[in-house]
């Protein structure tokens, strides 16, 4: 870009101050941490539900890596990472015990072609 280090630092600082850059992260290989199973779990809520309670419970579960509030018959879609199928079964049991969760529907990921925006590294 032809910018000096101080100029780049200043521009990055402005982007951070404006809220455009909201943070930085390390990209870690989940299998290096023993997290060999990824699943997408749809959460179907019961009729009378307190979203706050469900969201707090989901946030407290370390297996839940990502959580999206969605439109449709499901209320949430979760990305869950665990070590193995027995750990997934235990996680699903825990999810189904959360007050306000009527049931879950799970899709196990067979292989990951890319994650993030078309596999670009951050």
TrEMBL record:
Keywords: DNA-binding, Transcription, Transcription regulation
Xref: InterPro entries: AsnC-type_HTH_dom, Dimeric_a/b-barrel, Tscrpt_reg_AsnC-like, Tscrpt_reg_AsnC/Lrp_C, WH-like_DNA-bd_sf, WH_DNA-bd_sf
Protein's GO biological process: response to amino acid
Record-given protein name: Transcriptional regulator, AsnC family
Domain of life: Bacteria
Domain named HTH asnC-type: residues: 1-36
GO CC terms, sorted: cytosol
Natural source organism: Geodermatophilus ruber
Xref: Pfam families: AsnC_trans_reg (PF01037)
GO MF annotation: an example: sequence-specific DNA binding
Keyword flag Phosphoprotein: no
């Amino acid at each position: 870009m032809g910018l000096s280090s101080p100029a780049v630092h200043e521009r990055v600082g402005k982007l951070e101050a404006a809220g455009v850059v909201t943070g930085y992260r390390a990209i870690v290989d989940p299998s290096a941490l023993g997290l060999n199973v990824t699943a997408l779990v749809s959460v179907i809520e019961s009729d009378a539900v307190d979203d706050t309670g469900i969201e707090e419970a989901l946030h407290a579960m370390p297996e839940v890596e990502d959580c999206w509030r969605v439109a449709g018959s499901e209320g949430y879609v979760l990305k869950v990472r665990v070590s193995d199928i027995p750990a997934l079964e235990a996680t699903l049991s825990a999810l189904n015990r959360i007050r306000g969760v009527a049931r879950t529907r799970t899709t196990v990921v067979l292989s990951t072609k890319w994650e993030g925006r078309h596999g670009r590294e951050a």
